[in-house]
Design goal:
There is one protein chain. The chain is of the alpha/beta class and 760 residues long. It contains 22 helices and 28 strands. The strands form eight sheets. It has a seven-stranded mixed beta sheet, with helices on one face. Strands 19-16-22-21-20-23 form a six-stranded mixed beta sheet, with no helix packed on it. Strands 6-7-8-9 form a four-stranded antiparallel beta sheet. Keywords: Aminoacyl-tRNA synthetase, ATP-binding, Ligase, Nucleotide-binding, Protein biosynthesis.
Length: 760
């Protein structure tokens, strides 16, 4: 992750201000002549090291020309990051980064000679098609501090001496050997997002999160992280931390229980739980329940259900309120250390990035202790007093609030407290209490990283590392709690689980399998940049999973009655339909077949246009799975001229000419309600005033829901329960809705069988 406040030059503002002073230090040692190579090393040192004390130490070595190459500088940086406490062992440092090591041309020549001698036979056989990088790598491994260019020049010279100049044959392109295609594995296909499109590569989410893949620090090596603040107590605290955790990776998913999780949270769940799982660690589900005004029990329940629905089990379920007593004790300690004070500025006064400084910032410690106790006892009204921390955050915000007064009973602690801690105060300290190793959060929290480190260090408690990643957003939707509430209040959607939304409860109700959502997160990848994706990419993931999971059934949405006048039996026949036609070993189900069947209205035309292959006079079709072909004999219409029934004859398919098409049908069906969903909004970014000047509520798609009240579905689905999924042949994937009741099943269309080109 880039350091907080990084500028386009690669230097943070603080480091860019330090560079002139370090250049002055170098000129003091070298005189006015500062060569380009030394200047580049100085710039790189300032760009890559935040600690000013160690930076001065490194500048001294660069200025004295004891560190001469970027290779030595990288080794020096690794050493000082691994040894954050003073004093540094100078002799050990110099050994670690090759200070004073002189690699002579003779040594380079001998090393290259030895490597070429080792590979002489292959070189003579392959000539200039041989991988010369291999020679360089082996020579360099023998001479760690040798200059890379000098090694390359020596390799080129000795190869030329051995092989002579390149011939025309050497210049011909080497034919590519055909690679054996590996057998498919069960790994998820991950993908790289490029310009909003997804290119597949076989990397599962766990592979993306495992080990060195993310360049995260190892447990206990927090101090090696860019920007991590080291204090005299850091190493002792890390030692205690390792003793408690045994070096185990610990993460947490910390939602606020004031709304329903959405598709963006799915990435956070996969990232936090997945990173712990991929690295043999544990993940806590911790409710950030510090705002009792907006919290409801239904949100606590729904959040845990969604985490478990996605396939993850928390190591422990905790609450910020579990630690209210400890957080209060630490707040008192922060005041005693002169790092917090009670303030009486109004909320309106301290909003924004440039509020006036608090006139109470320097009030005596004893006075703040008394006033904070008065806050706890309820002697101040809401908004009359806050506890503020003495720091400036990355975004320039000064003295964030740690506690505020709220006379609202808490769902777990009741009336015990009338002061509640804020996110800025609570989050890092709860991470510390639970000994979290990697505090993973989205990029908007980067501005709070400095307060995260500051607060833990101000209290001398274990300080985890905050890592940021890019949010996952979807087009054609809104996910903010406030806006979803507006949609519910205005009747645009039924509730948080309306299948047109992209909350996780809505996606489950619509029929999206959890595996599809996890696969989608894997395809988006673990990116630092924010990812804004098209819904059709999520739908594609659903099709892949449902194709393997959803048994087949037949349904007719716009029924047309068909009477078979020469039906070959006096009673209904039983037809065996494979649950999965591509794999009949997965079983069959029976459906009745009798003289009256129903087909889709759109599967019949009175006149067959060019290219039309379904039922028409003179153009028979097959009925799927029956072994029969039907041909139109008579068309029955109502008074308005609308076709209401067909009379047909049937012929066994093994004695008739093969038809152009086979269509689905139902017989003795169940009458069901089917809900067909389209996008809720008309524009990609309904919250963008430039796209939708009238606001998101003006952008609602009037055709986002179509209800088919009397759809006909074959009786094989009769025993299905809510959230069971089916592929209705030729129509799409459907899921049983919880509104289903005895005598009237309700189905939601999850996705069509194929992507609509107009939506891509």
């Amino acid at each position: 992750c880039p350091a907080p406040g990084a500028t386009g030059s690669g230097l943070t503002p603080v480091r860019s201000r330090r560079l002139p002073s370090r250049l002055g230090q170098a000129r003091g040692a070298l005189g006015p002549a500062l060569d380009k190579a030394t200047g580049t090393l100085l710039y790189n040192a300032a760009a890559r090291l935040r600690d000013p004390q160690h930076l001065g130490f490194l500048v001294g070595y660069i200025a004295r020309r004891q560190i001469l190459t970027d290779l030595q500088l990288s080794a020096a940086l690794d050493y000082v990051r691994s040894h954050p406490l003073e004093p540094l062992d100078t002799a050990e440092f110099e050994r670690a980064c090759g200070v004073g090591v002189c690699v002579t041309p003779e040594q380079i020549e001998e090393a290259v000679e030895a490597v070429i001698s080792k590979h002489r036979a292959e070189l003579l056989a392959e000539r200039y098609r041989f991988n010369m990088g291999l020679l360089m790598g082996e020579a360099r491994s023998q001479l760690q501090w040798a200059d890379g260019k000098t090694i390359k020049n020596e390799v080129d010279l000795q190869v030329l001496h051995l092989l002579g100049p390149k011939t025309e044959a050497d210049l011909e392109k080497k034919p590519k050997a055909a690679k054996a295609r590996p057998a498919p594995t069960e790994k998820q296909k991950a993908a790289v997002v490029e310009n909003g499109e997804v290119g597949t590569e076989t990397r599962s989410l766990l592979e993306q999160l495992r080990g060195e893949a993310l360049k995260f620090h190892k447990p206990g090596e927090n101090y090696k992280t860019e920007g991590y603040v080291v204090t005299p107590n850091t190493m002792a605290l890390l030692k205690q931390h390792l003793a408690i955790t045994g070096g185990q990776v610990r993460t947490r998913f910390p939602p606020e229980p004031n709304g329903i999780l959405h598709i963006g949270h799915a990435k956070a769940i996969n990232f936090n739980f997945g990173y712990a799982k991929a690295n043999g660690g544990i993940c806590f589900l911790r409710y950030d329940d510090t705002n009792p005004e907006k919290e409801e029990e239904k949100y606590f329940t729904a959040i845990r259900e969604m985490v478990e629905w996605l396939g993850y089990q928390p190591y422990a379920v905790t609450h910020a309120s579990d630690y209210f007593d400890q957080l209060y004790a630490w707040a008192l300690e922060l005041i005693r250390r002169g790092q917090a004070y009670v303030c009486h500025q109004k909320v309106e006064e301290i909003k924004g990035h440039n509020p006036p400084p608090s006139p109470w910032r320097d009030r005596p410690v004893e006075e703040s202790l008394v006033l904070f106790e008065d806050m706890r006892k309820g002697k101040f009204g809401e908004g009359e007093a806050t506890l503020r921390m003495k720091l400036v955050m990355e975004d320039g915000k000064m003295d964030p609030v740690a506690y505020r007064v709220k006379f609202t009973p808490h769902h777990r602690t009741g009336d015990k407290w009338c002061i509640y801690p804020t996110y800025d105060y609570t989050h890092c300290l709860c991470d510390s209490i639970e000994h979290i190793t990697h505090s993973l959060c989205t990029k908007e929290f980067q501005a709070r990283r400095s307060s995260y480190f500051w607060l833990c260090n101000a209290l001398d408690v274990y300080c985890p590392v905050q890592w940021e990643y890019g949010r996952l957003n979807l087009l054609y939707t809104v996910v903010s709690k406030r806006k979803i509430i507006r949609l519910v209040e205005t009747g645009a959607v039924r509730d948080w689980d309306d299948p047109r939304l992209f909350t996780l409860t809505a996606l489950r109700r619509r029929g999206f399998p959890p595996e599809a959502i996890n696969n989608f997160c894997a395809r988006v990848g673990v990116t630092v940049a924010q990812a804004t994706m098209e819904p059709h990419l999520l739908e594609a993931c659903a099709r892949e999973v449902l194709n393997e999971q959803a048994p087949r059934a037949m349904a007719v949405l716009e029924p047309l009655k068909v009477t078979i006048t020469n039906f070959p039996a006096t009673k209904a026949l039983e037809v065996l339909v494979p649950n999965f036609p591509a794999d009949e070993s997965r079983g069959f189900h029976k459906v009745p077949f009798q003289s009256t069947v129903y087909i889709e209205e759109t599967d019949f035309r009175e006149e067959a246009d060019k290219g039309y292959k379904r039922l028409a006079p003179g153009q028979p079709v097959g009925l799927r799975h029956t072994g029969y072909i039907i041909a139109v004999q008579n068309i029955i219409k109502d008074a308005s001229g609308r076709v209401i029934e067909l009379e047909v004859t049937c012929t066994k398919s093994d004695v008739a000419e093969k038809p152009k098409a086979f269509i689905h049908w139902v017989s003795e069906p169940l009458v069901c309600e089917v809900r067909l969903y389209e996008r809720l909004f008309l524009h990609k970014n309904p919250e963008d005033p430039s796209e939708v000047p009238g606001g998101f509520l003006s952008d609602l798609n009037p055709d986002s829901l179509r209800v088919v009240h009397n759809a006909l579905v074959d009786s094989s689905v009769l025993s299905a329960r809510p959230f069971d999924k089916f592929q209705f042949e030729r129509l799409g994937y459907f899921s049983v809705d919880p509104d289903s009741e005895e005598g009237k099943m309700v189905f939601n269309r999850t996705v069509t069988l194929k992507e609509d080109p107009g939506k891509a």
